Amino acid sequence: MNSRQRRGVLLLLLSVLCALGAFAGVLSVIGDVNSKVGPEVTAYRIRSDVAPYTPLSAGQFQKISMPERWLSANAVTDLAQVEGKIAVTTLRAGSLLQTDMIVKRPALQPGQQEIAIMIDAATGVAGKITPGATVNIYATFAGEKNGRPAQSKVIVSNARVLDVGKLTPISDRNDRSSRATEAVPITFALSTLDTQRVAYAESFAEHVRLALVAPVAPGSEPTVSPGDRTYTLDKDK
Fold first, then answer.
1. Beta strand 113-119 with 178-190: parallel, antiparallel or unpaired?
2. Angle (nearest 5°) at CA 82 between 79 and 87
3. One-letter-per-residue 3-state SS of the chain
4. 220 against 93, higher pLDDT
5. Percent of the chain scored above 90 by pLDDT?
6. Is the dihedral of CA 116, 121, 127, 128 positive or negative?
7. Residue 11 or residue 82, greater confidence
8. Together in a domain, 150 and 57
9. Average pLDDT, the chain
10. Is 58 exposed, middle or buried (0-12, 13-18, 19+ CB in 10 A)?
11. How confident is the model at residue 24 (pLDDT cuts 50, 70, 90)?
12. In this structure, are 219 and 123 located in the same domain?
């Protein structure tokens, strides 16, 4: 073997050693990254914006994988967690779904019924009514021809809101005007008698309004005294 051949063999050996060193370096970096990142777990990304109080379904979310150490403790990792739930606030597209974004949909109690009525923004506390809220339902009635004055009545107190729908175009027609407007369907959980009261008011009252009731201590409910359930203008004279 002449000197030129020996140099070629040496260069080949050096190339092999350099390649082995580079491969070992890559393996070391990969091992270091894996040790820092850790195993991957399942998470769910929101496909498109979800409006508040919307019932949730599996099709609204995209399954992804990400390192467990990067996932927050309240991240949703199983879509069974969204069954029977609604969005608390607007869920933005691309965000990771977390348990504090959703709540259980309020359910009916024994003896209660669901009833939905259309309420516009002006008479529905301008969007502050949410599922689970407690409201008083007021109805105003026009005076009768025999001289009975117009009056406002609390037809239901402490009504529990089950669901708040989306703004829907409606036609508001009365003796004075005929104009298009928008209203929100609001669903309540009520007893049979209160359901009849609401149905009567929606059919015959000039207006039906909601008043949001402030939260109270557990085990107690705010009440409306009998003398305050009906109001006529002559009470202020």
1. antiparallel
2. 135
3. CCHHHHHHHHHHHHHHHHHHHHHHHHHHHHHHHHHHHCCEEEEEEECCCECCCCECCHHHEEEEEEEHHHCCCCECCCHHHHCCEEECCCECCCCECEHHHEEECCCCCCCCEEEEEEECCCCCHHHCCCCCCEEEEEEEECCCCCCCCCEEEEEEEEEEEEEECCCEEEEEECCCCEEEEEEEEEEEEECHHHHHHHHHHHHHCCEEEEEECCCCCCCCCCCCCHHHCEEEHHHHC
4. 93
5. 13
6. negative
7. 82
8. no
9. 78
10. exposed
11. confident
12. yes
Domain ranges, residue 65: 40-104
The structural domain count of the chain equals 2
Reference 115, options 187, 191, 183, 192; nearest CA is 187
223/127 same-domain check: yes
**Spatial contact of 161 and 78, defined as CB atoms under 8 Å apart:** no
Cα dihedral value 12, 18, 21, 25, nearest 10:
-140
Q: Given pLDDT bands bounded at 50, 70 and 90, which one contains residue 177?
A: very low
Q: How many CB atoms lie within 10 A of CB 13?
A: 10
Q: What angle do CA 97, 102, 104 make, to 5 degrees?
A: 140
Residues 172 and 91 in one domain: no
Tokens 């004075």, located at residue? 176
What CATH number is given to the structural domain containing 47?
3.90.1210.10
Residue whose tokens read 């933005």: 92
81 in a structural domain: yes
